[in-house]
Write a structure and sequence with these properties.
Layout lengths: L3 H10 L2 E4 L22 H15 L4 E5 L8 H10 L3 E6 L18 H21 L3 E4 L4 E2 L7 H18 L5 E5 L9 E2 L4 H11 L3 E6 L9 H10 L3 E6 L16 H13 L8 E4 L8 H21 L2 H9 L3 H12 L4 H10 L6 H8 L1 H8 L11
Helix pairs in contact: 1-9, 2-9, 2-13, 4-5, 7-8, 8-9, 9-13, 10-11
The structure holds D-allose and zinc ion (ZN) (2 copies).
The site of D-allose (AOS) has 11 residues, from loops.
């Protein structure tokens, strides 16, 4: 068994990135439910993220979404984060929300629309320069709805051209993270539908282009941990967009639907040496009906619990059972770790870092919810269901 001190050290080094849009009002295509005390601007989203960090100690990074988080002075926003013990993480581009993008953005048949999309991506890199962000996260809503609507290969060429131009614009320390999604909003073809397409483009671009695995972006039954293992092995796993899904891209709290899957993913991360700064552990969630800050705290804890269990896997015993062809023995080693209650270990770790053992309870006691309900009226909508 891995020593608890080693498990704790590894856990303390993990940093989980929370998305600015999870703090804003969100909903489905049917209804956006406004909640009380929701941030009115990006500055207040960062204030809320600071509460998540305050009680968990492992969520010091906040991802931004442009234009949902548009401000005049991004360096000032980065300072605002820094003053609260945070830093700004991935800049998420948005080339899906304007009328021109009906037939796509960087894959659109019209060069003028492609140009507009590319200009937005360049603007995002300018913002990264101002915020000190390392990662540009690209998710494209591009695709087609009907066979014959557009040329599949030509769209790949246009995609490759845009990606190359953005990659070229990046600084030495910056990365391009390409996210895939098997469908939605396009229903026939999607231009980056799977890890293989994302990987092929990233491979051509170079070392600083890597793939993002959004756990909600796969067909039911997909073995996500296999994808994770493979991408890590190839040095191409840039990060995660963690969330849970029951049906499609549900964006529910990570670890809520299938904690065992999250554990299996984290086992591959730990086994593949991915528990370091090279892999961004981002959340991509929307809290439509539940209170947002406690839900984000819960999500961070779910990732931490899965990571702790993955770290507890007795690698030596597992290796021995695997080499001996001991199918049941190897499976038992994994299940022992999964079935371990890691909550006392995590409570101890928090106490050692001067935190309360139960972050959700500590948040409720802090009075922050009452304060924002009192002081903030007319909270901002996150965009549409992210
Ligand atoms: C969309 O389905 C993707 O998950 C995106 O990562 C994301 O939620 C959105 O673009 C917010 O940045
Ligand atoms: Zn995502
Ligand atoms: Zn998504």
């Amino acid at each position: 068994m891995t020593a608890p001190s080693a498990v704790k050290a590894a856990l303390s080094s993990q940093s989980i990135e929370t998305p600015s849009w999870a703090y804003g009002n969100s909903g489905t295509r049917f209804k956006v439910f406004a909640q009380e005390g929701v941030p009115r601007d990006p500055w207040e989203k960062i204030d809320d993220a600071a509460q998540v960090q305050r009680h968990t100690g492992v969520a010091p990074v906040v991802a931004l979404h442009i234009p949902w988080d548009k401000v005049d002075d991004y360096a000032a926003l980065a300072r605002h984060a820094e003053e609260r013990g945070l830093r700004l993480g991935a800049i998420n581009a948005n080339v899906f929300q304007e009328d021109e993008y009906r037939l796509g953005s960087v894959c659109h048949p019209d060069a003028a629309v492609r140009r507009k999309a590319l200009d937005h991506l360049f603007e995002c890199v300018d913002i990264m320069d101002a915020t000190g962000s390392r990662d540009l996260k690209l998710w494209f809503a591009d695709g087609t709805n009907y066979p014959g609507q557009d040329d599949i290969r030509a769209r790949q060429d246009r995609l490759a051209e845009a990606l190359a131009a953005v990659y070229e614009r990046l600084g030495e320390e910056q990365r391009l993270l390409l996210e895939y999604k098997f469908f939605e909003p396009a229903f026939y073809t999607t231009d980056v539908p799977d890890w293989g397409t994302a990987y092929a483009h990233c491979l051509k671009l170079g070392d600083r282009a890597e793939v993002v695995v959004d756990t909600g972006h796969h067909a039911p039954g997909t073995n996500i941990e296999f994808i994770v293992a493979l991408l890590l092995r190839e040095g191409k796993l840039g990060g995660f967009d963690f969330n849970s899904r029951f049906y499609a891209d549900d964006d529910l709290m990570v670890g809520a639907a299938d904690p065992f899957q999250l554990f299996r993913i984290m086992c591959e991360v730990v086994g593949g040496g991915g528990l370091g700064p090279g892999v961004a552990f981002m959340l991509d969630q929307c809290h439509n009906i539940e209170p947002k800050i406690p839900a984000i705290i819960r999500s961070v804890m779910n990732v931490q619990e899965a990571t702790a269990k993955a770290l507890l896997v007795d690698r030596e015993a597992l290796g021995a059972a695997q080499s001996a062809g001991d199918v049941l023995g190897a499976n038992a080693v994994l299940m022992d770790a999964f079935n371990t209650d890691v909550r006392p270990l995590l409570a101890e770790l928090r106490a050692e870092s001067g935190l309360a053992p139960d972050p959700v309870a500590a948040y409720h006691r802090s009075g922050w919810a009452e304060q924002i309900t009192e002081n903030r009226k007319g909270g901002q909508q996150a965009g549409w269901g992210a």
